[in-house]
Structure of GNAT family protein:
Amino acid sequence: MHSLDLPLKTDRLVLRPHRPEDAAELLRFHSRPDVARYLLVGPWTAEYAEQEVAKRIPKTGLDTDAKALALVLEHDGVVIGDLGLWTTEHPRLAEIGWTLDPDYGGRGLAAEAARAVLSAAFEVYGLHRVAAQMDARNTASARLARRVGMRQEAHLRRNWWCKGEWTDTLIFARLADDPPPP
């Protein structure tokens, strides 16, 4: 496993580690009920944003003690989302998750970020498999998973108790030797 050179840069994005001052920018969209609807926690408060960013700051690579990578997505100098990658039960298995400010949706920015991190997951970290789990009602996230070459492996019915209700979970994954998405 090699170290990842940060920040990652794509044509339109800078993907970089979290900084304390990101709390206010992330709060801008994580506090929205439409964003929090399908996430594990409700809308963020300012205090929660600071705590969450503090937890994410040390997550700078799978080769660190944190065994996780937490990145902020910047577009034209504005924080528009976040993306995480973390190992699971085996060091060559990981999970990916993302959140994008809906005001920046529909431009392919989330796919651009996810492709960059998936590329690093396989090429830099030598992962075998990266999975994404999501609320089955989150159709935008499912479309994104497909767009970046992940295959739907499961639809688990009412398997997760979240925010007072049983919810379905979709599981997508991509293997290192899967062909790249078109």
User: Anything to note?
Assistant: The two ends are 27 Å apart (CA to CA). The chain has one domain: 9-175. Residues 109-123 form the longest helix (15 residues). Residues 40 and 144 are 19 Å apart (CA to CA).
